[in-house]
Write a structure and sequence with these properties.
Two copies of one chain form a homodimer. In chain A, helix 1 crosses helix 2 and helix 6 runs parallel beside helix 7. Chain A folds into three domains: 49 residues, 434 Repressor (Amino-terminal Domain), CATH 1.10.260; 126 residues, Response regulator (Rossmann fold); 133 residues, Rossmann fold. In chain A, the strands form three sheets. Chain A has a six-stranded parallel sheet, sandwiched between helices. In chain A, helix 11 links the parallel strand 8 and strand 9. The first copy, chain A, has 351 residues and is an alpha/beta fold. In chain A, 42% of the residues lie in helices and 17% in strands. Chain A is built from twelve helices and twelve strands. The termini of chain A are far apart. The interface between A and B is large, with 67 and 67 residues. Chain B binds a DNA duplex (30 and 30 nucleotides) through helix 2 and helix 4.
DNA sequence: TATGGCTGAGATACCGGTAACTCAAAGCCG
DNA sequence: CGGCTTTGAGTTACCGGTATCTCAGCCATA
């Protein structure tokens, strides 16, 4: 009847600071000072304590330490919508690298675009006294907004630039970026354009981007023949079949703007495998400058957003704010249109 | 003036349990019981306490709670090598979903295949008394192995199945899976095969997979003309240029096995854009059944590994172990060969 | 009616560190 | 050499909860 419990160490046999202090013949407080590098001990004492730490294999209980000093933990709550979407994993990677390099740990939440789940996660994470929070997007549910606002920790909102952030904001101006792409589509001679995206974007930054794009199209005198929003993940195959559906109902379209490059790549594959020439029969534009864009038969037209950098900067801002350095409210990491070769009619159509 | 009793200035202005208890006219202990659902209070008392919780906006300090009960946190340390590699993000997604749904939080480490960084992260995470750990791979640095072994928390090793795990192991038999692919390549008529991978895999499971593959090739009487390992990330473009390099130095190769589908897709794009027919001129086999495989002009030959499930099962095992339920030492989540249409010479070459 | 179990609730003692205060001895100065 | 500052180190009081023990009522059963 031996269950797995006895396989592991008993709780009480963990060495604690008192054990170390006793073994070294000093007080707990002195041992604590040595370990934290605070002044107030002689080199000899230091050595004695460290010797015992080594010998006994003492590991600090940071739960106790943080609690005792009324301090924060070294955890930073990081909320992103989706791990299946490369843009977010890139941002996450930027965040994680910076945090880890600075001795902080990312506590992850993948919201799946579910506000309620996010809220729940947020409540839990806040109860652990995190050092800070990095959240994606600027449109929070009222309760979430309230929680973020009343929390005593610094918050960085990433993705879409926010002129009046809760605390700090790092991202790009999604509207402007969308506008730039719309303008380019018109410039390259497209007149009857369409949009393909997934429902995921509606509540998020893609909305602002989409608005910017629409404005540019309208201003340029072109027509939006249809916008097709599917209930699926923004991946390759989704782009493939969504394009099929789009072209079936609106064959007159001459260029498509996709929510991201992976959808666009799917669309590209559909088009070329069905005898359509890109861009002469149909123009294709993606978003995000994702890796796939580099290996398509023609360089994909897209907008480069420095996602990795966005994550890094967000983490940097948070850390600066934690160390009391002045940090900007708002940081624009910029975007860059990638002309590529999948847009443009009749002219400039070489590989 | 020793009126410290009443005018006790509190460091934090945060509402604590004592405040709630006072306001509700009960003892701290009773309030604690109500909030934790432990028995020992009347419905009326319960209501009074909850009313004050609501009114005062009390949020538990879990740092204090975990510390007081000598307990663990709800954090689970999760270490994966790379976020730029879809297979790992899929596993992570599986883990994260399950953990979050069960009230645990993933504390992320992206090791970048760096043992030292992992070690450092591990030390920090362990000092926060995590509930458990999920680590990728089975080949740990000696110091890491020691730390994992001596830690008082359950550990799940994922990826490659481990017959003698530290604690628990969830994954697939990478050797067998590699063997299956090797066998299939021989069966489909390939005689002079090659391998393309990145340095990232060497220290990890891809080694076992690679060994299995080699064994099958040898057993089948075929020749491995070259194995090309590049110092880069296992992404689309890497596969593209690595294939170019490979074909330049070994044009006689008739089939290539790639470390993953993204590399393979890059290779496919290179081959077809340079006038080679897949699979008649060159066979291409990937790994992981990644999304890209579905939109190539021909279905990519690959091996499906249930990454999402692997992550979910790993988290499940950990949670079971935490709740004292019996959990298996080793769980094989299985793999499945996907024949596709990018392997096979002269026959079976329709789309 | 006496005994004993059950239930709601309070009192107390921590958990493992750190902040803040205290104090003796040593160092420094004119 | 006295007084003042510095320095190494100890003492005490917590931080905000929970484990554990205690105890008064209350009900059921013999």
């Amino acid at each position: 009847m031996t269950d797995g419990l006895e396989k592991k160490k008993r709780k009480s046999d963990r060495v604690n600071l008192a054990d170390v202090a006793r073994a070294a013949g000093v007080s707990k407080m002195t041992a604590s000072r040595v370990l934290n590098g605070t002044k107030g001990f002689s080199p000899k004492t230091r050595e004695r304590v460290l010797e015992q730490v080594e010998k006994l294999g003492y590991v600090q209980n940071r739960l106790a330490a943080a609690f005792a000093s009324q301090g924060k933990s070294t955890f930073v709550g990081v909320s992103i919508p989706d791990l299946g979407n490369e843009v977010f994993t890139q941002v996450l990677e930027g965040i994680e690298r910076k945090l880890n390099a600075s001795g902080y740990q990312a506590v992850l939440c993948v919201s799946q675009y579910d506000g309620e789940a996010t809220q729940e996660w947020l409540e839990t994470v806040l109860s652990w006294q995190p050092a800070g929070l990095i959240v994606t997007g600027r449109n929070h549910a009222p309760a979430t907004r309230k929680l973020l606002k009343s929390s005593a920790v610094p918050v960085v909102e990433i993705w879409d630039l926010n002129s009046s952030p809760l605390d700090m904001s790092v991202g790009i101006n999604q509207y402007d970026a969308g506008y730039a792409m719309g303008q380019y589509m018109v410039e390259t001679g497209h007149q009857r354009v369409g949009y393909i995206g997934t429902h995921h974007d509606t509540a998020h930054s893609a909305t602002a981007r989409f608005e910017g794009w629409k404005a540019a199209i309208r201003t340029g005198g072109a027509t939006i023949v249809h916008t097709h929003v599917v209930q699926d993940t923004p991946g390759f195959y989704t782009g493939y079949y969504a394009t099929e559906q789009f072209l079936k109902s609106c064959p007159e379209v001459d260029a498509l703007f996709y929510q991201n490059d992976n959808l666009a790549a799917g669309g590209f594959m559909f088009a070329t495998s069905h005898g359509l020439d890109v861009p002469n029969d149909i123009g294709i534009a993606g978003w995000g400058d994702l890796p796939i864009g580099a290996i398509l038969p023609k360089r994909l037209t897209s907008v480069h957003v420095p996602h990795l950098r966005m994550g890094r900067v967000a983490a940097e801002q948070l850390l600066m704010s934690l160390s009391g350095e002045p940090s900007s409210d708002t940081i624009d990491v910029g975007f860059k249109l990638i002309p590529g070769h999948t847009l443009g009619r009749r002219n400039d159509t070489q590989v």
